[in-house]
Specification:
Blueprint (H helix, E strand, L loop, with lengths): L1 E5 L3 H12 L3 E5 L13 E3 L13 E12 L2 E14 L1 H15 L2 E3 L13 E4 L6 H5 L6 E10 L7 E6 L4 E6 L4 E8 L3 H12 L7 E7 L9 E3 L2 H4 L10 H14 L3 H32 L7 E4 L6
Parallel strand pairs: 1-2, 1-7, 2-6, 4-9, 5-14, 7-13
Antiparallel strand pairs: 3-5, 4-5, 8-11, 8-12, 9-10, 10-11
Helix pairs in contact: 1-2, 1-6, 6-7
């Protein structure tokens, strides 16, 4: 089949690479002049290597656990799979190279203003502000704001620090030669809360970057045009806003059902509908316990950072 993929992030490149391996003719359209998501923490579980060939050169640092700081309680969440710190942009370019070497055609500087018609199937993997989603007339996801900046502190700790907020969290991530600080919160309050936490920690904000974090599952009802990818579908983890592993998992569901998009949509709803329900419930319960009855929480617990249960 002739397949068009809109958006050359990791999901678009991954789908292109895998579909080309199945014998399909794939073209990826990317609106920007270069490949690579510029603003993202790039904290991804080592489950990543279940999807793509391992590339140790991408890894800047690894994280074993997270300290969670509530006002009257601090606990430790140990990760079953190590969390890898890497440049999301470099990861995108690595997977795009896999696709290109497999024979996928990648066209840069190509903004899609209407759905391509010369293809048997069209897949939108074009991020939080997905043009494909708009062209399909689908509803928009709920957006939170991600804010991020770096300091020149040298820190190679194997843990991250997090401070839960009303609808998100503030974080500190050691990256070896620098430290990353940031927040995920509702758009109206994110900057004010970031200022408050940085003031308490005596950290100076510089070169602040922002990006939208979509939430809620958006599924196409079109038999030949679909969405895939964490941001395009709003498939981001409720507790962290991360989307890479969820996005690649959704891509595998699509690949299992290709070219039947209707079956893909059904399986996507079954799998992620349950994931979203239980992770939202567990996240909300954790916030309630941490703020009001923290003595009920264990001081340390091992968790799967991608799929809580």
């Amino acid at each position: 089949m002739k397949v068009a993929i809109i958006g050359c992030g990791i999901t678009g490149s991954y789908l292109g690479w895998r579909l080309r391996g199945l014998g399909h003719e794939v073209t990826i359209f990317e609106k920007r002049a270069e490949i690579g998501k510029a603003v993202c923490s790039g904290l991804i579980s080592e489950r990543l290597w279940n999807f793509i060939p391992e590339n140790k050169n991408l890894v800047e640092h690894s994280i074993e656990y997270a300290n969670v700081h509530f006002p009257k309680w601090t606990g430790r969440l140990k990760f079953k799979q190590r969390m890898l710190l890497m440049s999301h942009a470099e990861l995108d370019r690595y997977v795009a190279l896999l696709a290109e070497n497999a024979g996928v055609k990648i066209i840069l500087n190509h903004k899609v203003d209407e759905l391509p018609t010369a293809f048997d199937r069209v897949i939108g993997t074009d991020g939080a502000l997905s043009a494909t989603r708009k062209l399909l007339g689908l509803k928009e996801p709920h957006f939170k704001m991600g804010l991020q900046f770096f300091t020149s502190e040298k820190n190679s700790d194997n843990f991250v620090d997090t401070w839960p907020t009303a609808n998100g969290f503030f974080w500190k991530i050691p990256r070896g030669l620098r430290v990353e600080y940031g927040i995920m919160e509702e758009q109206k309050v994110a900057r004010g809360m970031l200022d408050e936490y940085c003031s308490q920690l005596k950290v100076k904000i510089a070169d602040l970057q922002a990006w939208p974090i979509p939430g809620g599952m958006i599924v196409s009802n079109n038999p030949t045009v679909t969405l895939c990818g964490g941001d395009a579908c709003g498939l981001t983890k409720p507790w962290s806003g991360g989307g890479v592993i969820w996005s690649l998992t959704a891509a595998n569901i699509l690949l299992r059902n290709f070219p039947d998009f209707e079956e893909y949509h059904k399986e996507l709803k079954r799998f992620f509908g349950w994931q979203l329900f239980k992770t939202r419930a567990i996240t909300k319960l954790g916030y309630i316990l941490g703020n009001y009855v923290p003595w009920l929480l264990p001081k340390e617990r091992e968790i799967d950072s991608d799929f809580i249960l």
